[in-house]
From TrEMBL:
Organism: Pseudidiomarina aestuarii
Family (UniProt): Belongs to the HMBS family.
Residues recorded as bearing S-(dipyrrolylmethanemethyl)cysteine in the entry: C241
Pathway: Porphyrin-containing compound metabolism; protoporphyrin-IX biosynthesis; coproporphyrinogen-III from 5-aminolevulinate: step 2/4
Name of this protein: Porphobilinogen deaminase
Phylogenetic placement of the source organism: Bacteria, Pseudomonadati, Pseudomonadota, Gammaproteobacteria, Alteromonadales
Amino acid sequence: MNRVLRIATRKSLLAMWQAQHIQARLEALHPDVSVELLPMSTRGDVILDTPLAKIGGKGLFVKELEVAMLEGRADLAVHSMKDLPVEFPPGLELFGICEREDPRDAFVSNHYAQLDDLPKGAIVGTCSLRRKCQLLAHYPHLVVHDLRGNVQTRLNKLDEGQFDAIILAASGLIRLDLSARIKQRIPVDICLPANGQGVLGIECRSDDADTKALLAPLTCADTRSCVLAERAMNRRLQGGCQVPIGAFAELEGDDIVLRGLVGRPDGSEIIEGDIRGHRDDAEALGTELAEFLLSRGAGKILQEVYAANELQS
Ligand SMILES: NCc1[nH]cc(CCC(=O)O)c1CC(=O)O
């Protein structure tokens, strides 16, 4: 009874690391199953010169993988949860949610030890509206420039001298064995992470009970509760593509403490809130916090961001 599981994956170093990590875990759990990788390119990997928000956002990186699963060429895909749209296409679902790596954003620089040390006019690279708005809100004297590409490309652009510092997810650097490049793990009070940051999620066909049985032991119940709350908040805000939204949940006993914010990309306004409740109500908590943010004007900010991106595309 030799079963083969195929993992569809992007070809970037980080995506390959993530797929190989799940491959190794599955092989250790199920010695009679052989796990193969199906590396593929996505539209998001091919279009490299346009800010992501203008070319359709996160879904660009998963479509080809999803088609491969729906056509039966692959059984599962491993994703960074924060890159996944909040809804899945019919026939596919999020089944596994793995243990969270460090969720914080990382400050990376060749000249400065921390955000506080950056002088007036220093140029910081990031392509994330969430990072941009929080950086500018706390450090209005900084200048934020777009920075795209995979982790390696972004580090190269820093090393070439195009930026004084760049912001990346700590988890990606840690996974690629690049944690020595992290100068500061930015406190979540200064930069609230994106929903699902630092978490690997596994997508498979909804009707594929055999694959689901093999994937079941990969899920971390605590991480799952937190990520469900974070994603429910984004879903209610309709934060589908690249948006200035932060959502971060932690467990305290059986309670979830969820923090959320929506901000103007230029940092001139940030609407934030938090909520606490039992982990069994994770998704309801996320929705309730989103309602609160909307009641404080988050919807207007998000509409303006969407309109601006449409006009420029
Ligand atoms: N947006 C790209 C992306 N998607 C996932 C990660 C790694 C972090 C994670 O696992 O959440 C990164 C790199 C980054 O944001 O610096």
